[in-house]
Amino acid sequence: MTKRIFISLPVADIAASTAFYEAIGCTRDSDFSNDAVASLHWSDAITFMLATPAFYGTLTSKPIADAKASSAALFALSLASRAAVDAFAAAALAAGGREVHGAEDEGFMYSRGVEDPDGNGFGPFWMDPDAATDALRETETAAS
């Protein structure tokens, strides 16, 4: 069986949040979506479950955090290229998201920082694994 992850997020407006997640490349699953929850697939293994505060409250007995005021999690999403990272960020901003930080280019890794309309943080990134390994080795050698 394939392991999957379902990320539940409280959102103020299901329709607006659904539009945002579709804009960044998710596909809505109408079989598991209604006025209180929307299921959006990022990949075959990752699904965002967007829930109204009332529905989200049925999943936990803890107070629901305001992601605009505090951070509980950040989601780093791997993309195929630098251009895909920029396209993701542009789509997020056009769909009501907010830029947290512009492009950060480490040579072997390129990233951006954005938030959805509810303040949930995303770090779309591209990385060259071979170059990242080489950079780590150089850092370890310099520290010795």
Automatic annotation (TrEMBL):
It comes from the Bacteria. InterPro entries: Glyas_Bleomycin-R_OHBP_Dase (IPR029068), Glyas_Fos-R_dOase_dom (IPR004360). Residues 7-121 form the Glyoxalase/fosfomycin resistance/dioxygenase domain. Pfam families: Glyoxalase (PF00903). This is Glyoxalase. It comes from Sphingomonas psychrolutea.
